[in-house]
Amino acid sequence: MWLVSLISYVDRSTMAVLAPAILADTHLNAQQYGFIISCFSVAYMIGNPVWGYILDRIGVRRGMSVAVGIWSVASMAHAWAGGFFSFGLARAVLGAGEGATFPGGLRTVTQTLSPPKRGRGLAISYSGGSLGAMIAPLVVTPVAAAWGWHGAFLFTGFLGAAWLVFWYFAGKGVDVAGAHSVSRAPELPPGVWTHPVLWGYMAAYALGAMPLGFILSYASLYLRDRFQMTQGQIGAVLWIPPLGWEVGYFIWGAILDRVGPRFRGLFFASLLLSLPFVITQSLPNPVWVLAEMFLAMFALGGYVVLSIAWATRNFPQGHSGFIAGIGAGSWGAIVALTSPYLGHMFDQNDFVTAFRLATIFPIAGYLLWRWIDGRVAKSAARA
Questions:
Q1: CA 379 – CA 383 distance, rounded (Å)
Q2: How many angstroms from the chain centroid is the CA of residue 333?
Q3: pLDDT (tens digit, 9 = 90+) per residue, 58-103?
Q4: N or C: which terminus of the chain carries fewer CB neighbours within 10 A?
Q5: Which CATH number does the domain housing residue 372 bear?
Q6: How crowded is residue 156: how many other Cβ atoms within 10 Å of its Cβ?
Q7: Domain-located, residue 355
Q8: Domain span at residue 12?
């Protein structure tokens, strides 16, 4: 599951890494690019809870085989895209397939690990995504230099096909019930869509982690537009921000396992570390910009780990795939809504507003989660 989340982020990050070259070649502007991101994000939003529901019933092995097959074909299809609509369609199918990534990861963690080990297990499973975003520029940039951006998409599709061969052997025991497994849930709990835990979880995950999507999608264009960096120069350094995300998953997961469910203090610490992101536009050179993006992704990796841990502790058991799907899907919804607007800001070189907007989202997510957590605690005390 670590490896498949890595491949999924290599696939989805390829267009973001190569965006300067692709936009120049296809004559797309940043706002159109933002709408293309939204096509992925809307399909990803829908696909996450759908796959979560499916995986809770048919199992991880079969479900992930189908999902990776779908998104590998979609990734290769980008090689034949040449404009707004063809890229939008390819991104939508890719997003629909990749919606299974994190529901599969969380489902595997909860059915194979005991509760004291799940924080680190979750960090391992999910950290493949941040590592994939980190290595994508190092991998696809030289491939694109040799065979063009079309060849880079064919290469990423091949990675998914190779994983399917590996999964045929490695995934054989994943759905076998063990001592700490979680039974398959026949039905969702009554009133699931009014459950306060669900809404608190979505607030923390979707709003809190919004800048992660902003950095992944727009960092390459920002470095090009503000510092006139070339595609090769961008590819050589774009691994730095996701490294913070990768490190953050493990550190926040280890802290959570060590100190226990002290969510309010940990969420607040994550928020404080994310706030300097607002000054990114005023930083004088790419080194400082990349360092700040590293810090922001490290901080907001905490929002992801903490929100999932909080939800799985407070939501009825047996629905881990659904929980993972709802979290990643709600994040996809926020990215879909904001990407075209952010793209318009980039077309206008209004970077100050873009960074200010991105910084507001984690603040709003924390405040909303804090209010809902108070209600959940009061309900538990009355019970």
A1: 6
A2: 12
A3: 888 899 999 999 999 999 999 999 899 999 999 999 999 999 998 8
A4: C
A5: 1.20.1250.20
A6: 28
A7: yes
A8: 2-170+193-382
